[in-house]
Design a protein that fits this description.
Elements (H helix, E strand, L loop, with lengths): L7 E3 L11 H11 L4 E5 L4 E4 H17 L7 E5 L4 H13 L2 E5 L5 H10 L4 E4 L2 E2 L2 E2 H8 L21 E4 L9 E2 H5 L4 H13 L5 E9 L2 E9 H14 L7 E3 L7 H14 L2 E4 L6 H11 L3 E2 L3 H8 L16 E2 L6 H10 L6 E5 L6 E4 L6 H6 L3 E2 L3 E6 L11 E8 L5 E2 L3 H7 L6 E9 L5 E6 L4 E3 L2 E3 L1 H8 L5 E11 L3 E10 L7 H8 L11 E4 L13 H13 L2
Parallel strand pairs: 2-14, 4-5, 4-6, 5-11, 6-9, 9-10, 13-14, 13-15, 16-17, 28-29
Antiparallel strand pairs: 1-20, 2-3, 7-8, 11-12, 12-22, 17-18, 18-19, 20-21, 21-23, 23-24, 25-26, 27-28
Helix pairs in contact: 1-2, 1-3, 2-3, 2-7, 8-9, 10-11, 11-12
Length: 559
């Protein structure tokens, strides 16, 4: 390839974009590989072939139709990794309902906003997970559940929500049981399912992923069949997945990493999905790889580091591994070396993107050098254009820093019911502006060098300071708050808050953390809290977060 002079690169491909719905593509995979293991969920003792998974998905899809859920309705899914989660993803795709991914760590404050923002009329929820009592939180937000018939909720706080479907064997007032819904479908509903297979379109919206906003509450990135099916297919193709492969999936399903780069990558290539547990645990992951003879493993750098450093690591036979995806944060060179030498992942790939691009726009390849797999995020994936621009919107010469932008099939339809923020992110030429600073070399490889926005990445989780600031502003003692990230050896970054108090008020760091607990997601709760009288500012009055960050780094290092 001739060396580039300008920072623009288009991913090449020898194949066509898949212009098909997820449901139809899934059915073809099931028909081609009926006896192959499709889904292994170790903590639930689930082991289904593609034929069995198809039967389970069709039962749920018919049941949802029996409840009156229609194409375009928003159906929330709230809970940790489970067989039911995968069923919901595929069943909603089959009926054309838009699945709304709700972070399993959300508390009432965040849940209320998410459900109302996209006008969810149905939520499918787990019973509980770790410290989260999902049923209890829903009953707190909608006490009317105690006295209403299932499917007839009329809630003052959640005015659009009609149906709550709960997982597990128990029964709850005002709620439907998941297994009961799976048994509701009659012949007419299965017939309707077959009709929908011909009616639904690849460009229909099928998924809403909440991504935190820099100016406040989360935004609902709206993705189509075409968006996420192709991104999953391309990821699987880059990994050379086939029906002989078994992918270990310790990453959460509510992220695109789980539901697209894992579930849809496997579905697109007939590979086996292996879930080691409800959430990431290094020991469970190592056991799953050995006992299931997994050939691929996904994770963020923090996960791989915890696996490599586990006291029992040397006891496991991981020789079946060959590939996987690492994303969410840069990979240290030494970690990459150990993944290759100690975990046999010679073909591990580094991926970069964001929810708004379904989610991958750049990826390394197995034949890329160690340096390129640690110092860059690879090149644009097939059918996607990447450019790096300056403040005036001009493409910069290679080697110069600028904002990375993406255009192509993978760009979201927009933020749900939010045209202003959509227009701020996707320009008139169809380019999605990432807010990330990058440098492209003459071969099209991209290095991420910083963030225009102040996003914090903690253990692979994207955290936007403004969302935490808006929440803390509600505390009566707090006058002003600034949130930023500080480096952390284990998590990559940790959340730090500098707080100004209202006159006459006192507050401790522990009291701030207690105020956050059970109201916002645990990883958004500031680890470091300082009370200040003023903030460093420019002469024009703009707060300088980088000065605060430098001061905290110096203080934490003890220098």
């Amino acid at each position: 390839m001739e060396k580039l002079s300008q920072s623009y690169y288009c991913g090449a491909s020898t194949s066509q974009i898949i212009y098909e719905t997820i449901g139809n593509y899934f059915d073809r995979t099931c028909e081609s590989n009926p006896e192959i293991d499709a889904l292994v969920v170790r903590h639930q003792n689930v082991r289904w072939s593609y034929q069995q998974l198809q039967e389970q998905v069709n039962s749920l899809a018919a049941g949802l139709l029996a409840l009156g859920i229609q194409t375009g309705d928003r159906v929330g899914i709230w809970g940790p990794n489970s067989a039911e989660w995968v069923m919901v993803q595929l069943a909603t795709a089959k009926i054309g309902a838009i699945m709304v991914c709700i972070n399993p760590a959300y508390r009432t404050y965040e849940l209320e906003y998410a459900l109302n923002k996209v006008e969810c009329d149905t939520i499918i929820t787990a019973e509980q997970f770790k410290s989260s009592d999902y049923l209890g939180m829903l009953q707190t937000l909608a006490p009317e559940l105690a006295d209403c018939e299932p499917c007839a909720l009329q809630s003052k706080t959640l005015p659009h929500l009609k149906r709550v479907i709960r997982m597990g064997k128990g029964k709850s007032p005002g709620m439907l049981n998941f297994d009961d819904v799976c048994a509701m479908g009659a012949a007419e509903h299965h017939a309707r399912l077959a009709q929908l297979a011909a009616e639904l379109r690849p460009d229909d919206a099928i998924n809403i992923q909440f991504t935190s906003g820099t100016t406040g509450n989360p935004k609902g990135a709206t993705l189509s069949h075409c968006n996420i099916l192709n991104n999953g297919y391309l990821t699987g193709a880059a990994m050379d997945l086939s029906p002989q492969d078994r992918l270990c999936i310790p990453v959460p399903l509510y992220h695109c990493f789980g539901m697209v780069l894992s579930v849809l990558a496997c579905v697109a290539h007939g590979a086996t999905m292996v879930f080691p547990g409800e959430a990431f645990d290094p020991l469970d992951t190592l056991k799953a790889v050995e006992e299931e003879r997994c050939t691929a493993l996904h994770g963020v750098p923090t996960m791989f580091i915890m696996e490599l450093d586990h006291p029992s690591f040397s006891q496991f036979d991981l020789s079946s591994l060959r590939t996987g995806i690492m994303a969410g944060a840069p990979c240290p060179v030494e970690v990459m070396r150990r993944l290759i030498s100690e975990m046999h992942m010679d073909d591990i790939l580094i991926a970069y993107g964001q929810t708004e691009v379904s989610p991958i726009n750049n990826m390394t390849l197995p034949n890329d050098s160690l340096e390129r797999r640690t110092e860059t995020v690879g090149r644009a994936v097939p059918w996607v254009e990447i450019k790096v621009i300056d403040d005036a919107g001009r493409v910069v010469p290679v080697g110069e820093k600028g904002e990375i932008c993406t255009r192509g099939y993978s760009v979201m339809q927009g933020y749900w019911n939010d045209p202003e923020r959509t227009a701020e992110t996707i320009d008139s030429g169809g380019w999605l502006h990432s807010g990330d600073l990058a440098v492209m070399d003459g071969d099209g490889y991209v290095q991420i060098v910083g963030r225009i926005k102040d996003m914090i990445i903690r253990g692979g989780e994207n955290i936007y300071p403004r969302e935490i600031e808006e929440f803390l502003y509600q505390h009566p003692a707090i006058s002003e708050v600034q949130v930023f990230g500080v480096p952390d050896e284990k998590m990559g970054e940790e959340v730090c808050a500098w707080i100004q108090l209202n006159a006459g008020h006192e507050l401790s760091a522990d009291e701030v953390k207690d105020y956050c607990r059970d109201k916002i997601t645990h990883f958004k709760i500031p680890r470091y809290i300082d009370f200040v009288d003023e903030y460093p500012m420019t002469v024009t009055g703009k707060i300088q977060k980088f000065v605060m960050r430098e001061a905290m780094v110096e203080r934490l290092s003890g220098s």
